[in-house]
Amino acid sequence: MRSKRRNRDEDETAIDMTPMLDIVFIMLIFFIVTTSFVKEDTIELARPTTNQDTTPPKNPPPLIVVSIDGQSNVFMNERSVDPEAIRANIETQLAVDPRSPVLVRVHEDAVNEVLVTAVDQANSAGVSKVNVARWVTAD
């Protein structure tokens, strides 16, 4: 009689995990289907390399320099420029020589949004490669 009682206790304590696994798989499928993936925009920046040729080319194109100071003010050719007017100024200088490279000098205290705007404006002006450099000031 005791053996029957033990078998009955063991049968009563067994839990069927199948319904719980079904619910987990249904939830997993739901989350996979409803998930939206966001593609983030990126900016291509040219980094300096150590393998650069040291001989200057003959008849080099003029360099277009966009400077951003510590207060996030934008300067081109020693004059203050609105960040949204960078494209027009670069297009004007590219009309003189379309080979002209663009250098964005940025102070370490400048707001990153102004740097991104300057690079975007240069790219939309038709410049294929925009170089970024740190603006070092003499104290």
Q: How does this model look, in words?
A:
This is Biopolymer transporter ExbD. One of its GO terms (biological process) is protein transport. It is found in: Cell membrane. GO terms for molecular function: transmembrane transporter activity. Belongs to the ExbD/TolR family. It is elongated, with a radius of gyration of 31 Å. It is built from 4 helices and 5 strands, in the order ααβββαβαβ. The mean pLDDT is 82. The N and C termini lie far apart (97 Å). The chain has 2 domains: 2-34; 64-134, Nucleotidyltransferase, domain 5 (2-Layer Sandwich). It is 38% helix and 15% strand. It is an alpha/beta fold and 139 residues long. A 5-stranded mixed β-sheet has the order 3-2-1-4-5, with helices on one face.
Structure summarized in a few sentences:
This protein is α/β, with parallel strands linked by helices. The chain is built from 4 helices and 5 strands, in the order ααβββαβαβ.
